[in-house]
Amino acid sequence: MDRVHFDSRVIPCPRGLHRATYGRLVRDLRRVEGQLAMLSWRPLRPQLRHRLETQFRHRLLRIRERLGVEPSRLPGRQWVRVGGAAAFLHVSTRTLCRWTNQGKIACHRAWWRGHRYFHRQELRRAQARRRV
Asked: What is the C-alpha to C-alpha distance for residues 36 and 108, in angstroms, rounded to an integer?
């Protein structure tokens, strides 16, 4: 397993992640953290500073989730649509729909258009089953 020393912490390469992708993510992590640190020195309007800080923090969160440093978080709602549930489980929306058709994960179907809604607890159960 490859490892990169980043500041005082070691970020191991997650299983299944290509070595080149891992290197790119670590470089992006360093670059975005540097940009966020340098943002305090730039003369900006407060609204623009807040917008850029939020953008950099969200980008850092996505990179850290991909590297496995921070776990994925569920949205604050009880019921989540297919896109949010697929992003949480790190699968495609088609895979998630296939799993519901096979009975691997339960969902609620809206009667008016057939949209699928997943409960937070069901998503946590599915995530725990995938880790085993």
From this structure: 41
